[in-house]
Amino acid sequence: MSILGIFSGDKKEGLEKGLAKTKETFFSKLTKVLIGKSKIDDDVLDNLEEVLISSDVGISTTLKIIERIEKRVAFEKYTNAGELNKILKEEIANLLAENNTGEYSDFGIPETDNPYVIMVVGVNGVGKTTTIAKLAHQFKKAGNSVILGAADTFRAAAVSQLEIWAKRVGVPIISQGMGADPASVAFDTLTSAKSKNNDIVIIDTAGRLHNKTNLMNELSKIKNVMKKVIPDAPHEILLILDASTGQNAIEQAKQFMQATDVNAIALTKLDGTAKGGVVIGISDQFKIPVKYIGVGERLEDLQVFNKYEFVEAFFN
């Protein structure tokens, strides 16, 4: 099983382009905060608070950042308003570091005796199907054999779309069509993966059922059936969130964390939004690593999230 990383030559450029709208909006607001200001005072910090909240960093995370800046200004005797950018960059980097976000450097996976199983969850419309395709492409490019399971049988479009993507990426898929038992699809996919010694299994699941209880029961059933084939599966429950929805993404994260044991997050559509600050808020609130970010429509535009690269690209 390959754990080699894939670093495309234009990764940095792709990240900077993906954050362009967020940067442009954020720093234009920040510039207005600092116009005519020579020192970091309460007025500057109040306005910075508004800038962070309006950039979808979130209220609780924003207050935490402001409090830290206040302490640094008092302790380190920072007074020059021109230094605010530097302090803000350092505090956001510290926050991401504390929350164990962005510890990944490539599309490698842990060594396992059985196939590594990723169960993908998220509401319809967040880019779940295309993210699965991009993941499969990157894992395959890294030298792994990948198989997909079309267990979102609640919508006919979900099954057919994943089949199209599987063909385009060149990976096998297990599908039983719309209305099939999702747990049965997952069981067949893991059984096939184990018999063929695949490295990675990616299971799609329903984005929404009739109510939250149904969704919770469905996801639990899929997990329990998986364990009959591979006892420690799923190894990863990956929640897909649309960054362009801002605070709605945070609400979705809360719902899915109540429904299942999410342990990784992928944020899509960063390139099409000015709400990229949600990366910081989600990392801080949920203490779940943001593992992947989508910065474009191409298969290569799913990147492993690296906190250092993110902060550098954002403040560059």
Brief rundown of the structure:
By secondary structure, this protein is of the alpha/beta class. The chain is 51% helix and 12% strand.
Polypeptide structure, described:
The chain is of the alpha/beta class and 316 residues long. The chain contains twelve helices and eight strands. A hairpin with a 7-residue loop joins strand 7 and strand 8. The chain is elongated and about 65 Å long. The chain starts with 10 loop residues before the first helix and ends with a helix. The model is unreliable at 1-9 (pLDDT under 50).
Could you say which structural class the secondary elements and strand pairing correspond to?
A: alpha/beta
Number of helical segments?
12
Which range does the strand content fall in? 5-15%
H/E element order: HHHHHEHEHEHEHEHEHEEH
Strand order of the largest sheet: 3-2-4-1-5-6-7-8
What labels would you give this structure?
316 residues, eight-stranded mixed beta sheet, 51% helix, elongated
Question: How do the strands and helices of this protein lay out in sequence?
Answer:
Layout (H helix, E strand, L loop, with lengths): L10 H8 L1 H15 L7 H13 L4 H18 L7 H15 L17 E6 L6 H14 L4 E5 L5 H14 L3 E2 L7 H14 L4 E5 L7 H18 L6 E7 L4 H13 L4 E5 L9 H9 L3 E5 L7 E3 L2 H9 L1
Parallel strand pairs: 1-4, 1-5, 2-3, 2-4, 5-6, 6-7
Antiparallel strand pairs: 7-8
